Structure formats: C-alpha cells, structure tokens
Amino acid sequence: MTSFQRSFAIVILLALPASVVAVEDQAVDDAIVNALRFLAQQQRPNGSWNAENPGGESTATTSLAVMAFLAAGHVPSEGPYGQAIDRGVTYVLERQQNNGLVVDKTGHGPMYDHGISTLMLSEVVGMMPKEQAARTRKVLEKAVSVIMKAQQVRKSQRESGGWRYQLNSQDSDLSVTAWQLLALRAVKDVGCDVPAESIELAVGYVKKCSNGRGFAYQPGNGPTSTLTSAGILALQVCDHHEDAEVANGIDFLQRQPMRFDDQWFFYGAYYNAISVYKYGGGDWERTKSHLFQELLSNQQPLGGWQARNPNERGHGAIYATSLGVLALTVEYGYLPIYQR
C-alpha cells in the first residue's frame, strides 16, 4: 500500500460516523491482512488461482483474487503483492479466446467468468503502465463486444434484456446479468463505449426479477437475500439509485440479513456489502455490524474462509476468501465500483 493510499484510508475512517468506526475496525483490518497472506500463498506459478469446482485454473477465481488485493489498497508492480497482482492480471489477459470471451474454457457458465474477468481488468487498467494498459484496453474492447452480442440474442419478452450462462443463451437470470452490468459500468468508467439502450434493456430485465419486495433468480421466482443484494447493486450501477425496487430491496435485506449458513453466503456477502454501503445511513450501519461479525467469527486459522453450505463449499477457499475480502474492504473505497 502506498503512503497516499494509507493516508486516504485514514481520511475515510475519520470521516465515518463513530457508530460505524466502533464496529471491530482493527479486527476487520487484521482479518483482511491474514486473508491476503493466505491468498498469496495459494497462487500457482503461472499466475492463476484455482477453483475447486469443477477444478483447475479459473479466470473468474483469479480475477476475484486480484480484485481482493486491489480492494485492500495494493497495486500492480508495487509492494508485497505487486508481482502477484501482475501475474494474475497477465494470466487473465492471455486467456481471451478468439471470439472475445475471457475464459479458461467454455463449460457450463462461461459468461460468469467473462463478466468477472472483464470487471477486474476494468478496475486495474488505470493502475497499469502505459504499454500494458493499452494491451488491456484492447482486450476490454473485445470483451464488451461479447457482452453486447450475448444480450442481443433473440429472446422472449420475459427473458429479454438479460444474460445467461452461454454466449448464445436464449434465456436470462439475475445472477449472470448482475456481473455483466458491473462489468459494463466499469468499462464505461474507463472510457469504453457502452450504448445507453443496452443498459436500459438490462434495467428492464432486472426489474422483472423484482416482486415488489426483493429480487429473484428469474422473473416469477421467490426472492432471496443474495439475489436481492445483486438486484439492488445492478440497478445502482445503472444510476437507478432512487427506484422503488431499490428501497424495497433494502427493506427486505433488513428483515432477512445474510447468515453464514445461507446457501450462497459469500456470493451474497459481496453484493450485500456493496449495495447497502452505497445506500448508506442506518441501513449500512446495521448491515455492517451483522455481516462483518458473520465473517470475522468464521475466518479460519490460516486466514482463509470456506463456505459451510455444501453447494457453495464446492467452489473452494480461494473463491470464498476473495469474496470475503471484497465484502470487508467496501469502506476502504479503492475500487471504483465501491464509490457512492
């Protein structure tokens, strides 16, 4: 972490209300330090981090790990983790396929990997030297085209505007859609062209996943805390902060807070922390106190996390630890996607 970043973090902390600052700040900082040490020890020689399900190298898992370091204030080529970040970014850049997808392999859900990797490259490109930044922007331009192409596949009215697992999927879901919207907002912030009509089509799909209280995986399904957090953030990054679906979703989350035993706790914790932090006020103070304690009390001795629920546990410790760090670092404000 540079001296500027340390000073910036101190300013952020001093500016927070006392009731927020009092919530285990030193314990949170220590948990982040220990988690990053754990992640660094797990990096493979080729720069990747492994996903345990389905196993092997993963651009998505690697991108989540890189973002965890960035979110804690570490930057490429500098400090104790600079080279680890460099190797991770290079690994992802080299995995872009001829069709533009940024993935290791096209399996069950390449659009997940693509959205997460596009988001990471957008977050890191502004920290890179000129030559590497130029290379990364070329990758991002092709990556954006892929997202646009996947949205334009002919779909029913119920499914239109969103994204699903495959480049040519004819249905949609909120989970994949949220990652694409985070990626599109990030690439737009670094100067890539994102058509306004594409964003509004996506907003329309996200709202179809709301039942007036929370958000569901697909239109007509029942809402969950994880998907409600994702739906709120998807609307927020599209500048729909004041929509009724956002306020209703926040109320839903206050009544159904995330629990460590939840089926997709770590996935939800990431979205929950960012979305409610952006909303702010007492809702964030309550969410922070509860969510951070769930994370702190379940961190493993070596610094990582592992999901308790079997469905999420299969994705491994790198996935869980990276998302845990990304949730705990939201107030640091280093990633543009965290900014209010």
Give the helix level as a range of percent. Answer: 55-70%
Strand content: under 5%
What's the β-strand tally? 0
SSE ordering: HHHHHHHHHHHHHHH
The geometry reads as globular
Total helix count?
Answer: 15
Unreliable spans are 1-22
Structural class designation: mainly alpha
Q: Which sheet architecture does the biggest sheet show?
A: none
Computed over alpha carbons, the radius of gyration is: 18 Å
Mean pLDDT: 92
The first-to-last residue Cα distance is 22 Å
Oligomer: single chain
What does this structure look like?
The protein is mainly α and 340 residues long. The protein is built from 15 helices and no strands. Helix 3 packs antiparallel against helix 15, helix 4 packs antiparallel against helix 5 (82-93) and helix 8 runs antiparallel to helix 9 (196-208).
SSE layout and pairing:
Layout lengths: L2 H13 L2 H4 L3 H18 L16 H13 L10 H12 L16 H15 L5 H22 L22 H16 L6 H13 L16 H13 L6 H12 L9 H15 L1 H16 L13 H4 L2 H13 L12
Write a brief caption for the model.
The protein has 340 residues and is an all-alpha fold. The protein is 59% helix and 0% strand. The two termini are 22 Å apart.
